[in-house]
Amino acid sequence: METFKKLKMYYWPYKHYFIWSIGFLIIVTAITVVYPMILQITIDEVVVNGQYNWIPPLALGFIGIMVIKGIASFIYQYTGDLFGITSVYKLRNALYEKLQFLPFRYYDNAKTGDLMSRLTADVEGFRFFLSVGFSELIRFVLLIGISFAVMFYYSMSLTIVTLITLPFLAVVTFKFDKAVHPAFRNIRKSFGRLNTKVQENISGINTVKSLSREDFEINKFNDTNGDYKDKYLQTSYIWAKYFPLMEFLGNISVVFLLSYGGYLVISGELMPGELVAFYSLLWYIMWPIMNLGFVVNLFSQAKASGERLLEILDAENEIVNGPAPISKERLNGDVEFRNVTLRYTENAKEALSKISFTACQGKMIGLIGSTGSGKTSITQLMTRFYEPETGEILIDGIHINEYDLSSLRSSIGFVLQESFLFSSSIKANISYGKPDAAMEEIIDAAKRAQAHDFIMELPDGYETMLGERGMGLSGGQKQRIAIARAICADPSILILDDATSAVDMETEYQIQKALKEVMKGRTTFIIAHRISSLKHADEILVLENGRIVERGIHDRLLSQNGPYQRIYDIQYQDLEKISKSHIS
Amino acid sequence: MEKHKDEKMLSRFKYSADEVIEKPFNWKQMLRLFSYMKPYRKGLLPLSILMVLLNTSVKLIIPILIGVYTLDIALENKDGQLLAILVSVIAALYILSYVANYFRIKWMNILGQSVIYDLRKHLFTHVQTLSHRFFDQRSAGSILVRIMNDINSLQELFTNGVINLLMDMILLVGIFIILFTLSPSLTLAIMVILPIMFFISTSLRRKIRRSWQVVRLKQSKLNSHLNESIQGIRITQAFTQERENMIYFDGVNTENYESWRIASQKNAMFRPLVELTNALGSAVLIWFGAYLIQGNEISIGVFVSFAFYLGMFWEPISRLGMVYNQLLMGMASSERIFEFLDEKPNVAENKNAVQLNDIRGNIEFENVKFAYDDRRPALKGINLEMRAGQTVALVGHTGSGKTTIANLISRFYDPTEGIVRIDGHDLKEVTLSSLRKQISIVLQDTFIFSGTIKENIRFGRPDATDEEVMNAAKAVGADSFIGNLPKGYETEVEERGSILSVGERQLLSFARALLADPRILILDEATASIDTETEMKIQEALRTLLNGRTAIIIAHRLSTIREADHIFVLDHGTIMEQGNHHQLMDQEGEYYSLVKAQYSMLNAV
Fold it and tell me: Is Kinase set as a keyword in this record (chain B) (predicted)?
């Protein structure tokens, strides 16, 4: 119940739909029980007692009542659906908003697949419960209650004899539900495994084919495919075991009804019409009981779904604006780190340890070091994607926590390691950070990123669609669009995180030349493996295990006999030799 | 202005959307689909049908027993003994139905699942034989959907649909015959509802189905965006586009809501209409039936039986409508499945292809031309020779044809013109598996299958012993990092997992390749995304790996290239220069300027 209370704000504003739905449900259920009664009256009063003049009003009245029932059940179902879909509309928007603003730390630990299943299956489960679950519960009570009342009214003893199987039915239903849910879970799990297997096979098909392992893969597939079949069959055996049994128990009731009811009719204690009415009413009790498990399960699943959704909605967003955020049109770009230490999780080792440096407006800072040394972490602190454990970061002399978050971030342009592009046109991707950019600005940004030429060679130029139904671009092409995207946003601080790793040397050279002009007036941070990419930095920070182990300009670092020189030697020793013999 | 911006935001992302289309029914395709039931035509199929028949018969007989015999004869004549007999017969029939039901559910499921199993196996096995071109043209996701979802959507059809179809036909005909024997005139009177029922079950249902299809499309758009927005969240936050994206999402969400609302509205009409039709039938029964009873033309029992059968009418008609729905969806799915099954491998095995026995590793291209599609020629007449045991480097810009050459050597594609030979054998004349078993490729993005480290290395040669696996890992220097993992060789890894760094993945793929012990080894940009210090470590491993085989190296980095025995410099699908490093440097041609570019970058910027 706690879960539903917490989620109340998403569905309770629409309670009017719910109330209407329940109101009409009561009408529908009441009328449902009328049908057997009319049958009884027809047989007992009209036929047995010969009141044939009752027929026209009876038939017309019946139709009239059914029309009312039709209208009522339409309203009941439609408003019930509206209750669900309206609430879920609101819930989805809330979830989306939450997800937009959750910090990087949250996404570091979240799996896309898991989030997606919450956003799809759990939202759907919740909707289904709102639309169907609530009212199904009410319907259950109503239908059984009214049917019981009518049966008791006809004959107390016959009711008891007939429904003697009911406890057994309830037990079987209960056992069935207990058995079938784990079985369904097994099917889902097995299907998930099969899915993973096939997905891996297709994604890794180059590896499979190049090692000629198709038969091996087919065998492994056959195992998982067979497992899925087995799991499915296990479930259907549970069905086969219980379902006919449930129906049989209901049928036994019919047998009892006929035996004892027949006896009562023969001995004149019961009208034949009442016997017939009993036959129908019986099923109005049996069916809901067989369905009870389904309804209860609906409830517990909705609860579980609700909890999973609340986990997202309640996730803490520790990175928010301060009390009086400063909004600046444009930052200058003076960056200062003072003794900054960062841990990604509480018990993890320090990702950055006492980092201090200053980068003045317009300067270029190079960051080099092996994977995991902390280069990316430094840049992501500036935008407050993460918060340092200790130390402070200042931009233009003001602590970054005092800035309005979005004004801070829009002043910093990022080219991230993974050049993620959206399912949209190239144009829209480049102008992603500045959606109202003019076409000239977009083209200019593309030109500077050395992307214009290849874009123009594409069939639709800047209108070419990327993403799931779009063109497949090479890694280098994607990187260049990502660079154009950052340039187009016209930031005061530009961060290039291994942004040219996938482009060939000559293109990188061209990009570097073009970037030189872009960097004018902007503070630039370049993370790279290749010395050539950051050789001209105003300061190069060499990182190892979260510490700055060397700093300075290229020429000075080359004479220090430290890690920088070691990297240089590996990369350029040959070249030195070559240049001596051929170029100079 | 603000409003204009909002409108722009509403269309900022584009996702593929299938159209809602309805095609004419394809009988040929249905026959082909049903041919998958053929293996079961002597066992499960007839058995299931028998059970269905038993079950249906019981369903048909009971109302007469209750109505005509119990009510009319036993109760009317106050014959307690007959009542007892009738009750026993009914009880016996119920037991029969219980047993039949048990086997019906069991056998129908076995039948259905076996067909699904066979079909999926057939499709998967077929896809494995298809060539690179097939995979180039499709996203992994779209192939996955075929093998998983499209086949699953046939599940219902094969487990319940086909047999229910039969059951319902029998039921309908049976009811009709029984009613007609009981009272022809009352039957005809009640039949007025039949056309209405058919109308609801087909036409209204079609409308409802279409509106649900729209819902599915909207939902898949919504989900596509959700998925993308999660994957691209870092970009969104870096560019502060959260608010703008919320406008877009609200648009998609509203569309989704609207489509649901419309579908719900149509859907909510369905049941009331059905019940009304039934009520109409009941009214006719009450009115005309009572009139007939009055005229002594029928008995109360017949009247009651009619009431029962009337109640039974809707179920089969409704289910027929459902099966029809399933059939339509099944047809759509099977069309997509058959499209894949009809796909022929581009690189087909020659009928008299011979086994390629242990090769030495001489590779020869004779005037080879190749194009991935009609528009872009990738190779324009390549002649080259690589000698057994040599290390050969392919150098050139992106798109110059380096990878294409490698692909042709493994025969992932066939040349458009010309011949590729290994040890003098035209590749078209040898079996694919005997060829590829002797060639290994190490790609830039090493694919890690989910499983243990050991299993991943063993992928190179499934019958390798644990010791061989470890030796291979040691030889490429991977054992030190594997030793540091929590469970060593038994550590579970997965494709998107973060346990392994890029360099470590690369070492794994080297171990994999070494274990496969190929005669020809192709390294396609294998070291591009590795930091310099890791690369140093890998260089060692590389030397071990290259030793004693023909190796083809595709790389940007000079340090990797210059040690090659022979270098081919490619540009736009032609060989510009060849020779070893020193020869090429002396030529001062294309290679020289590439080297120079790398050098000048150091100074120029």
Answer: no
